[in-house]
Amino acid sequence: MHSFNDSELTMVHSLPAKLTDPELDVLSPLLHRNGDVWTADFRGLILSTALQPIYSISHKRTVGYEALIRALDPDNASVLPIHLFELPTSDAEALLLDRLCRYLHIQNYSGLKDQLNWLFLNVSPRVVTSGSQADSFFGELLAQTKLPPHRVVIEIVEQPTDDAERLRDTVAYYRQLGCLTAIDDFGAGHSNFERIWNLSPDIVKLDRKLLTRATEDHKARQILNGIVSLLHQSGCLVLLEGVETSDQAMIAIDAGVDFVQGFYFCRPSTDLAKLCNAQPDFDQLLREYKACHQITRDPTRQLVDFFQRDFHKATEQLQTGAAMARACSTLLSHHTVSRCYLADDKGVQIEDTLISDTGTRNLDPRFKPLESTSKADWYRQQYLRQALAQPGNLHVTAPYLCVTGAYMCVTLSLCFTHESELRVLCCDILANPPQPSVNPV
């Protein structure tokens, strides 16, 4: 890293002694225009704007750009943003640098031909909570540059704050201006859904560490999908950043995120005019996803086809009064089947669960309190309600965690009539079954 001497740490333009609330007239002399591009001075450094596109998967096009600051020292060497933001020695100077960056980004963005998409601007919680509660500067800046507030997304970095109430008030101010708000780096060390509930952001940006873990661990991939689903239910659009490979792009698509950002699609660039023409081939990407999705979806349909005959034979025998053990003997003999059980039209289990040899071998003594399911109520389970809604049709679930043994399974369910009453036969199949042993010849 370049080390700064005393002369380099002085401002190119002298600043007033009082920097408690730097306004446009203080910052304007620090900006310089060169053709269509603006730069700014801060402590001897030259600041410029880099933009990175943000894409909507469904729309297959750019819907916004994140503004990133780039800094060069007097030797024309790059200064990392993290080091740039360590330079301010007071809250007032940190506020000035934050506003200077936003001023610079908006000046550059306003000059683009793109008059539709969003500009994502980062705002530090330190600045938000130490600056004035109502950032009148930003309203004046939008008015001067004539950038419509609905085209601006204010990103709040996800981290602890000493003044949650002020942060909430500040976010409310940006929303009153007409801007959208976003929580950045959700999923990092300090993330929690309480921040989502308190601030009600329009967009949540997931931290790239979630994607990295999902790339390496299938269980983490399921957790990622669950987080996206919960955020959608909370009324937030979801953006996944840090997408760097085609595999990660597939994970993003499969997770159901709305927007993506990352080196795989486009790197940040200070060549702003050229950047607007960068469009990835989403048609090809989605064709590859559809092909993969078809492959991953087929096994559950194959389960229905494979067990259809045995299921109907079992229910026919139950209708004639046969005992569960006899009616389900063929089903229980298959090496993937864990258990069979019967429920009434209220979802209440009628008899004890029949455990197969495979299920018996997989019983974990740590979960013994969950084994007995006599009179258990399964009405909350989707497979039970689906079966009751469509008698005679064999239904299959996606893999889920079975509460009776804490193992992953899928459930087949079929509703039939017995003595004028509805019954549902259910069969749990291990999602990761042991392979059948093969006797040597």
UniProtKB/TrEMBL annotation:
<dbReference type="InterPro" id="IPR050706">
    <property type="entry name" value="Cyclic-di-GMP_PDE-like"/>
</dbReference>
<dbReference type="InterPro" id="IPR001633">
    <property type="entry name" value="EAL_dom"/>
</dbReference>
<dbReference type="GO" id="GO:0071111">
    <property type="term" value="F:cyclic-guanylate-specific phosphodiesterase activity"/>
</dbReference>
<dbReference type="InterPro" id="IPR035919">
    <property type="entry name" value="EAL_sf"/>
</dbReference>
<feature type="domain" description="EAL">
    <location>
        <begin position="30"/>
        <end position="282"/>
    </location>
</feature>
<dbReference type="InterPro" id="IPR029151">
    <property type="entry name" value="Sensor-like_sf"/>
</dbReference>
<protein>
    <submittedName>
        <fullName>EAL domain, c-di-GMP-specific phosphodiesterase class I (Or its enzymatically inactive variant)</fullName>
    </submittedName>
</protein>
<dbReference type="Pfam" id="PF00563">
    <property type="entry name" value="EAL"/>
</dbReference>
